[in-house]
Amino acid sequence: MAKLAAVVGIGQTHYKTRRGDVSIAGLVREAAVNALEDAGLGWDDIEAVIIGKAPDMFEGVVMPEIYLSDALGCNGKPMLRVHTAGSVGGSTALVAASHVQSGMFKRVLTVTYEKQSESNAMWALSTPQPFSAHLNAGAGGYFAPIIREYMRRSGAPYDVGIKVAVKDRLHGARNPLAHLRLPNITAKEVEDSMMLWDPIRFLEACPSSDGACAMVIAAEDLVGQSPKAPAWIRGVAMRSEPTMYAGREEVNPQAGRDCAADVYRQAGITDPRRDLDCAEVYVPFSWYEPMWLENLGFAPQGEGWKLTMAGATSLDEGGDIPWNCSGGVLSSNPIGASGMIRFAEAARQVRGDAGAHQVEGAKLALGHAYGGGAQFFAMWVVGANKP
Amino acid sequence: MVQPDVLSQPFELGFTYTRSTGPVVGRFLTGLRQRRIFGVRASDGRVIVPPAEYDPHTAAALDDFVEVGQEGEIVSWCWVAQPRAAHPMQRPFAWAMIRLDGADIPMIHCIAAASPDELATGARVRAVWADEPRGFITDIRCFELVGKAGASPAPATGEDAGELEPVDRIETPIYLHYHFTAGSAPARFLTRIKQGVLTGQRCPRCANVYIPPRGSCPACGVPTQEEVVLPDKATVQSFTVVAIPIPNNPIKPPFVVANLVLDGANISFIHLMSECENADVHIGQRVQAVWKPADEWTYAMDNIRYFKPIDEPDVPVDKIGKLPITGLEG
Amino acid sequence: MKEIAVVAFSQSDCLAQAGAANEVELIMPQLQAVFAQVGLNNAQDVDFVCSGSCDYLQGAAFAFVSGVDALGAVPPIKESHVEMDAAWALYEAMLKIRMGHAESALVYGFAKASSGELPIVLSQQLDPYYLAPLWVDSVSLAAMQARLLLEQGLVTQHSMAEVVVRARRNALDNPHAQLHSETSLEALLAEEYFVSPLRPSDCAPVADGAAAMIVCTVEKARQWGVPYARITGIDHRIETHNLGMRNLTDSVSTRQAAEAAGALGGVVEVAEIYAPFSHQEIILSRALGLGDETRVNPSGGVMAGNLMMASGLSRVGEVFRRIAAGEIGRGVAHATSGPCLQHNLVAVLESA
């Protein structure tokens, strides 16, 4: 059996287009220091450090974790670097948790980051290689046809994505750390924004951010040493499938469904919409909210968009199952950290420490990340109550 | 089975990164621009050059800057008889760990010398400055042995102080060179497409046909060998209209990038669509390849310029990706 | 704590240039081999998969994603990846088993390092402001480390060459070795310097290839009925990235990891050490506290062929093979990462 573990400290940076005031180490360090302060701990209290980020080409530093060892107080300790594409923020949190859940460590620090302003993510994701087609128009170009197929089969109205784009930005306006803070955003503004990869408009896509997110995860017997309420880890799951295979369900990937079923089983969740109080789900393009509502079992097939349109996922509309109260990936997207931000924001909710975007009385929350061609999934469920 | 050509091609992976330096690195680089060298005092009192942002032992943030000398001694060194293209010097030179006067921790930089016989651990060296320092580590062009000929002009110190903005951002070009090899299965595919033939591979376990083939069935995890020649007619599985340019690609937006499944294949690939109104493109639409002239064919999917709509009935959605080689009518 | 067993291992030949093979084509034969050793079909028959690779070695982002195509990951599997040598993927897999979320795991590592100019690619591991822009290559850093050892009398050119002679001789018995021969000290010492004080023979040859391993609980190993070795200890530690702050003549992090892994308390019959440069084997042997009773790198070690991102896992695999074959009862495996041995992992393996 896995040993009990809980999040006892969370630290984030401000998310911005460019954090021109810090080095790479300085950015990562800021989140780590914030997490330690939140946990009431110092560097010596940490036994191991687990780092995650997306491809090294974003910053052009090969295996940058070894350069970050000084900034993160790793020296003399174990340090591990996770890379599972866009899901890496979530996977890194899970690998960090496994250090404690295995019984091998009592308290670890985990940090993820991206400093996208150092380069150009589109370039780094589309580096042309000989002998391969050069039509990869970044992540949006990849996901747009999948969204189109969802629209076709669900018959969802054209403005579902617009509604999500507005909703998550209004959520983001409550979050002082969010990159995009647009309290006055309107549906018309989203609709009128440039169509980048039809059907994805500019304001329906995530920004490109600099930022870092960190957490301290502790074993049951050390949880009490940190002053704030813990977020108990109630379930952890990862799933992967190939990018392409014959008959692959790209709109509603089986890896996502299986991963959700696994994490719900561990957490004793039978009806996610009813049992969970909120969710932080990786939605980099607005239409992924209705798609993931179905994939994660919050709505029947083809009906995810109905929850969105009814305001069920909106904090501002008093929805019963608010999604991405922090503003989500649509409001802040330092790629390598984006998954961990979901995990950390889920934890903030059940700690009752989410400030202006707190879901009142939240006791159980889902953190979700995906990556690659929507093929790598990482999820956890955190709770206010010890299992 | 056609014997494939081994396909290997050089390519450059490169970008000029824009690095924000933060206050510590920035202070050092600002000093370099004034031909001055700063270190930082660590928690144990030792002076680290270039300044470390964080103490390696205590993890404390460091900011107690100390100016150090422009001369120092060699702690260790090696001799590069055959410089690499990326190296800062293209004639034989030394890398060295150099402890500058006033510093405790050695820094790594290069030393210009005529031969390794001139070098020794403990020898004195001094910084040689670039003609126009700009706030980059190469403002110290190299070090040279003290007392050797070719002495550099005496370093100016601090003359510009206060007149220039501090360095907080640097441009770092990182261009690496690789030889990319296509892989056995892709090489077979590309060898045939150079002849204008589309060749997929069938999985021995699940019988699905993959194109372009990658040498394995991703679903079954088994190697694929059997080759299947496919026609150049396809069905639109889905698509997007792209309104922004693709890096390193001359195609002008807006253009249609479609996920297409060839007749007889069970997997889509992406390609351009043209000879159509973007607004008329739809899922299930039938298309056919428009090839470049045969004398332009090479080892590339680009031998197909694009796909264009053809006058055939749409394919029902549940049949996309399941058509036989003979197409819908077959 | 749950005991973990190694039940299968395979590595490819160390090839200076793997020719046409792409990553999937490099990995697949090794996966097929370890599945066959246990009698499994594909990754569906284990509970977890973890791999190690580095995008920059091939010059393509997401090199590991294509690796998934070799697994048979339909239906989806529990899978993860470290941007490190696969020895650390093994470490992650052990955490997963120990927390009770898996009974068995497949671990693999791969690289096609010949695609790029490895010492220059690795220069970009260094501090991105002070060192990477100078393109200080990995061989030169090791050469400065070697000179420190030489001038402090901790090694001699002779003792460095002895490491190479022994490695190449041992590699005569290793069918996957890239360099294997009877060589004389005189012949090696007569070589021109490469980056002095290192000669070409002091540097491990870079190889393309892959390695794979299956680990599981001891109960599962018994159930499968295959010979196994127990991993009785494993630990890894990192040191400062500031080379000037480190004592480069020692490997402090190896000492720390060895002590925490329990490597020091008992006879070490075989030690497989990941030392890409001859003098580093001497540093590491001392840090591991090895004496005359230990056979160091009977496979030839990475001096016989260095599979980037897999050599660390291969060291564990080599010790496993000897235990599973009944040749030895206890051995130590070591993996390294980063310039001049910055990060080190030590595993202790014992017979069932």
Characterise the protein shown here:
The complex is a heterotrimer of chains A (387), B (330) and C (352). Chain A is α/β, with parallel strands linked by helices and 387 residues long. Helices cover 33% and strands 18% of the residues of chain A. Chain A has twelve helices and eleven strands. Chain A has helices at 24-39, 88-101, 121-125, 138-154, 160-173, 187-192, 254-267, 272-275, 288-295, 304-310, 328-331, 335-351; strands at residues 5-12, 48-52, 79-82, 107-115, 195-198, 200-201, 210-219, 231-240, 278-280, 364-371, 376-383. The longest helix of chain A has 17 residues, at 138-154. With 330 residues, chain B is mainly β. Chain B folds into two domains: 22-167, no CATH class; 187-319, no CATH class. Chain B has two helices and 20 strands. Chain B has a five-stranded mixed barrel. A five-stranded antiparallel sheet of chain B has the order 18-17-16-19-20, with no helix packed on it. The longest helix of chain B is centred in the first third of the chain and has 12 residues, at 22-33. The two termini of chain B are 26 Å apart. The model of chain B has no long low-confidence stretch (mean pLDDT 92). Chain C is of the alpha/beta class and 352 residues long. Chain C folds into two domains: 4-117 and 206-229, 3-Layer(aba) Sandwich (Peroxisomal Thiolase, Chain A, domain 1), CATH 3.40.47.10; 132-201 and 232-351, Peroxisomal Thiolase, Chain A, domain 1 (3-Layer(aba) Sandwich). In chain C, helix 4 (86-98) packs across helix 12. The longest helix of chain C is centred in the N-terminal third of the chain and has 16 residues, at 23-38. The radius of gyration of chain C is 19 Å and the shape is globular. The model of chain C has no long low-confidence stretch (mean pLDDT 96). Classes of the chains: A alpha/beta (387), B mainly beta (330), C alpha/beta (352). Chains B and C meet through strand 1, helix 1, strand 5, strand 6 and strand 7 of B and helix 1, helix 5, helix 6 and strand 5 of C. Strand 5 (71-80) of chain B pairs antiparallel with strand 5 of chain C.
Q: Low-confidence parts of chain A, pLDDT < 50 over ≥5 residues?
A: none
Count every beta strand of chain C, where a strand is a DSSP E run of 2 or more residues. 13
CATH topology value of the domain at 5-121 and 207-225 in chain A: Peroxisomal Thiolase, Chain A, domain 1
H/E series of chain C:
EHEHHEHEHHHHEEEHEHEHEEHEE
Report the C-alpha radius of gyration of chain A, rounded: 19 Å
| Radius of gyration of chain C, CA atoms, in whole angstroms | 19 Å
